[in-house]
Amino acid sequence: MILLQWNGVQFKSLSNFIALVFCVFVSTQLFASEVVTTNITEVPVTLPQVYETYSYEEKVDWLKQAIDNSKSRDNIYRLTTELVFQYDLNNETELIRSTCQSLPPESKDLDYRLLCVTAHVDNDETKLKTLVVLQKDALEADNIRVAAESSSTIAWIYSSFGEIEQAFRNYEIALPLAEYANIYLFNDVTLNLATLYIVHGDSEYVEKGISLMLDAIERVNNLLLDDPSASRYVENTLARIHFNLGIANTFHRTNYPQALHYFGLIDPELTELRQSVLVFSSLAYAELNNFEESKALLAQSFQVPSSQTFNSDYLKCYQEVIKVKLDDSTEIEQCHLLSESTSVEVQQDLLKRMIDAEHAELSLIGLQKLYSLYINSLLPLLKQNSGKSASRTELTRLQQESRLKGELINKEKALTAAEQEKLASQSNLTIAIIAVFILLLLMVVLQLRQKQKLADQFAQMSLFDKLTGLNNRHYFEQNIKREMRFVKRAIEGDRYTPIAIYLFDIDHFKNVNDTYGHDVGDEVLIEFARRINEAIRDSDMFIRWGGEEFLLVARLFELDDYYAIAERVRGAISDTEFELENMLKLKVSCTIGSVIFPSSPEDDLTRPWDQLVKLADNALYMGKRQQRDCWVCVDKVIAEENFSLVLSQDLEDSIKDNLVEVTHSIKEFDRS
Ligand SMILES: Nc1nc2c(ncn2[C@@H]2O[C@H](COP(=O)(O)OP(=O)(O)OP(=O)(O)O)[C@@H](O)[C@H]2O)c(=O)[nH]1
Questions:
Q1: What is the three-class DSSP state of 495?
Q2: Is the peptide bond before 608 cis (omega within 30 degrees of 0)?
Q3: Are 660 and 637 contacting, i.e. CB atoms less than 8 angstroms apart?
Q4: DSSP string, 327-366
Q5: What atom in ligand 1 is closest to the CA of residue 591?
Q6: How far apart are CA 311 and CA 470, in angstroms?
Q7: Binding site membership of 467 for ligand 1 (Cβ less than 6 Å)
Q8: Which of 157, 160, 92, 106 shows the shortest CA–CA distance to 131?
Q9: What are the φ and ψ backbone dihedral angles of 596, each rounded to 5 degrees?
Q10: Residue 182 pLDDT > 50
Q11: Is the CB of 219 inside a 6 Å radius of any atom of ligand 1?
Q12: Is 525 in the pocket of ligand 1 (CB under 6 A)?
């Protein structure tokens, strides 16, 4: 697909950035005081200080010499990985590939593994398998960047297979990780997702994709303010976005003036895009009946070299279609040769233009190719999707599909007959065109139903709460396991760094809604979230749990923080009145219940997170029953075998039975 192929170029520059991050990592590790490990991938390569001042060629020479002179296998490995990262900085994919072959990465060396799989010329299916293993390893090792990058590439490959559901699932994994990992990766994933919206969504999703891209333009420009050395990345990324916006306007919005606007923003010196920009601009002018401009740009497009990075043979067919439109030529040789491996998105656009052309043979080829596109690509996809559901509406859809298929087969017969008679007469052709367009219309209706399903999936996959802008429960469910693994690994490394899970519930919130209305209630929720956000660390995970309940996961570097955080949040809410719109001032308070995991290094480290949340909820409700505007922190469940009993009863009963230890801020605790 045109947009994704361009990604090929972008991927390269992103991996440059990754290598840069890795080099910074390597050099900072160099100065770490003591590294006591025997693991080959954890000990940084030793480089002289002057190395940093070398040019790329000098670095490569120095590294090659150091490898030749080195006797230790470990040292050779580390120097080689540094060499590969240098190659990557200089886009030397061939060299990366051969080095990866002669010295394959260690399984724990996730960064090097990522570079090798990215550079390898495997077919996409093999690459996908390797990436899925890498993604799993990176998630387990908490290597966020590699996890994000591998998930994003997996999503991209799935989308090129047309497996959109899988593509979205993997972008769903990649997006929060990428946002956390770095802004470059975040931009990359966002742009790929935007592309997916545009290519596979209905008009609403096309607009959504476009607005994601417009946001990204702003983010990328801001990057330049912070870091002037990012100018090359900024230039390339902006060109990519402008190009994609141009294509979106050409293919999906048929807004040619807008398309020309975006194509016009692309630096003509970017040779990889030069020919595509010229051809598509010429097409847009032709559609706007500005034949003079169209002709001039088309002539230029023949003068510039084709892209070396991605296969753009289909441009030759576009050139012929434009020439036919300009009444300049009747040759259609290149459209005859249009490859079936051209992306579906491009084929759909191009074939429609061929069928529309006032050139009988070109229209006929367009129809034939459209038919094989339907049989080979669209029909299997429709079948694959329809097989998943047996609902009544789905069955109706299947019936329509099979009728459509039958009609298309008849149409094929008609077309074959027409071909045997050499060139079909213009009138027969017109009938065929009208018939296929009716069928196309039916297909569009069917696809819209499919897209509705997609739209539902998009909504489900959202990680944000619309009202407060916080992450939501879905986000928590995706990330809590990682937090718990962090705790477990710290304990395995003899460090006790527990996490605390707090649940916050606004007191008598129903009264606020009932007295002042839902809008004021919403305002209170927003202010509530803002105050807590200010009282906690940026790295804490703070989410809207649902309704007027919020949840916080905080890493505890000091045990006293456990109570201090609860008290700080309580005070942040109730110490000062909420000042709302229309001069309304409200006294708001909340009750807090919390649990610590693990309560000691000997605790059960495999405890499911939902049990912890349930225990925090029990603590919260004790606070509600006893007083409100207070916190209740469960310190310990005394014996493991009591855990399920503690979950099933009121916390007061567990305290009475000596099953738990609890610290709280309740003034007069009622034990009865
Ligand atoms: N304005 C607004 N209200 C919401 C939202 N989500 C949930 N609510 C309301 O939150 C209220 C929760 O009320 P209850 O669960 O009865 O509890 P409460 O009144 O807060 O009383 P306690 O929790 O016992 O102190 C309900 O009235 C919900 O309608 C929202 O997004 N906006």
A1: coil
A2: no
A3: yes
A4: TS----HHHHT--TTS-HHHHHHHHHHHHHSS-HHHHHHH
A5: 25
A6: 42
A7: yes
A8: 157
A9: -115, 140
A10: yes
A11: no
A12: yes
Q: Which of 472, 548, 550, 627 to mutate to test the pocket of ligand 1 (most atoms within 8 A of CB)?
A: 548
User: Measured between alpha carbons, how far is 464 from 449 in angstroms, rounded to an integer?
Assistant: 26
Residue 436 pLDDT greater than 60, yes or no: yes
Reported pTM: 0.50
What is the share, in percent, of the chain residues with pLDDT greater than 70?
A: 83
Among 473, 511, 513, name the best residue to mutate to test ligand 1's pocket (greatest count of ligand atoms within 8 A of Cβ): 513
**What's the ipTM?**
0.92
- Ligand 1, residue 521: give the atom nearest the CA: 1
Using the atom order of ligand 1, give the atom closest to the CA of residue 628.
25
Q: Per-residue pLDDT averaged across 192-218, rounded?
A: 84
Q: Is the CB of 523 under 6 A from ligand 1?
A: no
Q: Is the CB of 548 under 6 A from ligand 1?
A: yes
Ligand 1, closest atom to CA 524? Answer: 1
Ligand 1 centroid – CA 554 distance (Å) = 25
Neighbours of 338 (CB within 10 A): 23
Own/partner pairs for 72-78, CB < 8 Å, 24+ apart?
74/40, 74/43, 75/45, 75/46, 76/103, 77/40, 77/103, 77/106, 78/40, 78/43, 78/44, 78/45, 78/46
Per residue in 492-528, pLDDT (tens digit) is 888 888 999 999 999 999 999 999 999 999 999 999 9
* pLDDT higher than 60, residue 332: yes
